[in-house]
Model the fold of this input.
Amino acid sequence: MEHTNEKHAQFSHMENGTPEDWKCIADAFGPFAQKLPQRIIAHLKLLDGDYGGFPVDRLTHCLQTATFAYRDGKDEEYVVCALLHDIGDTLGSYNHADVAAVLLEPFVSEANHWMIKHHAIFQGYYFFHYLGMERNLRDQYRDHEHFARTLEFIEKYDAPAFDAEGEVLPLEFFEPMIERVFAQPKKSLYKKAVEQNMTATAE
Done:
């Protein structure tokens, strides 16, 4: 539905955009970006009730993975990564880890981004051989600086998080963490422009 009270740029081709047009777009970007945590939470809820043959539904698995990480004393950024590691299941049926990693990349450390991007290969140790695949694909990264971190994530938090009787903290518990982690990008093509726009708005 079109927001009739919202200002719109007037060009039909980007090459004809004026400074006024791009200011209009920049002004709209801030409020839209601030609602990213709400959109992430809404998308995560799409995993509710979706089992895909697993012992628990995908949302429960994500929540239990995050619960394990939280109970083990991991910091907030890590816990949010654990929570969102399978958020790509709905749209990235063949590359779910990449989808989650792209979503998280502007807001998390390089170590956490790498961990989430590669977690599917690491967890394959438990089942790839049942699918006619090589279970030790993760060994190609054995000398990588984040190998041990990713292995720990799989062994301690991801792989055991299919316990229907295990502790699962509710999504509402993690929502403030999502808000804080996604409050401001650490790296982005648009980071400088966004910061300048926020400063100008504050003034």
The radius of gyration is 20 Å. The chain has one domain: 37-181. The chain has a mean pLDDT of 93.
